[in-house]
Hints:
Layout: H1 43-51, E1 59-62, E2 95-101, E3 106-111, E4 114-120, E5 126-132, E6 137-143, E7 149-156, E8 163-168, E9 178-186, E10 199-201, E11 207-213, E12 227-229, E13 234-241, H2 251-269, E14 280-287, E15 290-298, E16 305-306, E17 309-310, H3 322-333, E18 337-343, E19 346-354
Antiparallel strand pairs: 1-2, 2-5, 3-4, 3-6, 6-7, 8-9, 9-13, 10-12, 11-13, 14-15, 15-19, 16-17, 18-19
Amino acid sequence: MDYLGEVGVGSWEYKDYAPDFSHGPGWITAGSGRIDLTGKPLAEAGYTKTAFELTDRPVIAVRPVNHTGERHSPSAWKMTNALESWSWNGCEGKKAVVEVYARAAKVALYLNGKKVGSNLLKDGCDTKFQIRYEPGVLKAVAYDAEENVISEHKLCTAGEETLLRAVPEEKTVKAGKLSFIRLQYTDANGTVKPLERGILQVRVKGGRLLGLGNGCPYNKIGYCKNHTDTYWGEALAVVQADGTLLNFIAEMDISALFGNILDNAIESVEKLEKPEKRLIHLYVAQQKNFLRIKVENYCEEKIVFKNGIPQTTKKDKQFHGFGMKSIQTTVRKYNGSVTAGIHDNWFELRILIPLGKRAG
């Protein structure tokens, strides 16, 4: 894994991420290792897994197509700077160096269904292809000595839409524990876009931002501010969960409340045909002397409201609608209120509970 110190000793960086190759101010990490400083496995990790037979499929890695032929910072301690990505927007027609790692006798490479190369693997488990970049599907097929297919793997180009996603390593953490949240520019399906770049600002409620940064060995901003540059489309935030905001609510009530909230939202978005519309946003924060909970989900069905509360859309109403009733019961137990509404196909459930008002 990459580490602080011995700056640049294992780094292959280009001028857009490292303005100078002097390894002076701004350089923080060595840039070596199979895993970068944010904990992201690099293509070199894929090679290691292949060499030790820890994967049963080929690994495809592509050297940054936007820098093909350009000089990078020098190092003899790095094997490759390839990324497991076939999303290089704006590089159509440019030469792409594709690396494939496999335990096989032969590897064939296909681009959008057309065979673009085939190499024998004699004394190792890696091989290279030089092709022209074209968006679509890049597939590697591994064969044994008798030309039987062993396995295959593919990379797909990201779609046109660009989203900024926050992907936590774990969905929940206990108070005082750490949450590692990967910040990524992706398409609607979650495919990372390495050429999207921006300065991200992070604000945390209900916790403390302990660290923020990216995996680039050159990082003039550092890791202790509330903003960071992205590196090949990604960054990482380290947040310590507070948890004290919900301390006055019994654990069983927290479980029932959020369980019903999320169950209702998930059930609603599962009805949507297009995956990119299946979105749920959950907010928990302090608003003056109140605990504020808000959940939003995209919704295309007609919702009937009664006294500001959505009614079940299922025909057998006698046996449904208990989730919303349970939410109301739990909130009223703590002298709180529940309201709901829908605007521009976004359903919103709002909960306000006076802080510290324990159940009577």
